[in-house]
Amino acid sequence: MLPLKQARLILAAMAISLLPAAVMADSYPSRPIKLIVTFVPGGGADIIGRYIAQALTLSMGQPVVVENKPGAGGLLGVEAGMAAPADGYTFTLISSSYTVNPSLYKIKFDPINDVTPIVQVSKGPLLVVVNPSLPVKTLQDLANLGKSRPGQLSYASSGQGSALHLGAALFADMAGFQMNHIPYKGGGAALNDLLGAQVDLYFAATASALPLVKAGKLRALAVTSAKRIPALPEIPTIAESGYKSYDVTLWYGLIGPKGLPPEIVNRVNLEVNKVLALKETPAKLEVDGASAAGGSAAAFATIVSHEIDQWNKIVTRLGVKLD
After folding, report:
1. How many CB atoms lie within 10 A of CB 19?
2. What is the rounded (10 degree) CA torsion for 183, 319, 131, 212?
3. How confident is the model over 275-285, as pLDDT tens digits?
4. pTM (two decimals)
5. What is the pLDDT of residue 12?
6. What are phi and psi of 290, to 5 degrees?
7. What is the pLDDT of residue 25?
8. DSSP reduced 3-state for 250
9. In this predicted structure, what is the pLDDT of residue 283?
């Protein structure tokens, strides 16, 4: 027979283990939360990530601290997030580049089953921008210039295998000319070199490029989504510019490590959806060319799975390989 004190300890542990998940979740979070942003400061991912972190800090009662971890099209940040304990204190903000990476990199994990999708945060187009010194004013001008200078135009991206990389490659293929790809470790560095005319064009996250367009420092030629954006209603879509089937969007979403408890997933999903429903959120995202997404964790998982398959077909057709 067990000693009385030991028996009491076992019974207490059993009682705690039987507490409803909702009761145990009441104490979460009890310490600061880390949000890994998979690109460098200054780009679209960083802007969205810091806004969400600030809003969640207020709604969850604990600091949500952003840590930028760029590299390999966002894979370095994803791998760091996957290695964290599945306790609800480390999340990763991924972009749609996450669904491109499996087609280009020899990744060491299952992009669907080795993470926990939580919620899609935003969605919006890329903005095709050029340095004003480039003698083009429309997307067709750009295509004509590219054809007259085969292989001479250069385009930036926020990293090898990013959606920004593949979005530009897809357009060049449809327009029938070749460009040189210049990858950077994030959107901020790419924009800086575009401003300095070190590269000719960039399929940029609208959040980071729009202020520069408004200031006249960059020229916008098109948006990559199927519809124009309210922030730049005069700028046509790529589809309107003669490439009818073109439609590429950039989104951001939260994932956690594999095995994240359902009560934590539900809590964070709920809090992010609350942030996205705030009166000021849609207006802020709309100015940046994006819109609030939200929805369930299951819906986000479906989007990730669908786009992985979609980009795999495009990469295979284009024969895109990492430089």
Report:
1. 11
2. -70
3. 999 998 987 77
4. 0.77
5. 46
6. -115, 170
7. 55
8. strand
9. 76
Q: Count of residues for the chain?
A: 323
Distance CA 125, CA 107 (A): 27
| CATH number assigned to the domain comprising residue 135 | 3.40.190.10
**218-252 tens-digit pLDDT:** 999 999 999 998 889 999 999 999 999 899 988 99
Kindly state the tokens that stand for 300.
């986000």
Tokens encoding 258 = 């594999």
287, 79 Cβ separation under 8 angstroms: no
Q: Which domain holds residue 263?
A: 30-124+249-318
Closest by Cα among 310, 282, 323, 305 to 121: 282
CATH number, position 308: 3.40.190.150
If we measure between CA atoms, which residue out of 125, 123, 115, 126 comes closest to residue 36? 115
Q: Which residues pair with 223 in a beta bridge?
A: 127, 237
Q: How many CB atoms lie within 10 A of CB 263?
A: 17
R_g (Cα) of the chain, nearest Å:
22
pLDDT 10s digits, 284-322: 777 556 789 999 999 999 999 999 998 999 899 888 877
Phi first, then psi: give them for residue 242, nearest 5 degrees. 115, 5
Give domain status of residue 299, yes or no.
yes
* CA atoms of 34 and 65, how far apart (whole Å): 5
Closest CA to 100 of 51, 188, 201, 168: 168
Residue 188's SS3 state is helix
Cα(193)–Cα(190) distance, integer angstroms: 5
Cβ proximity of 159 and 186 under 8 Å: yes
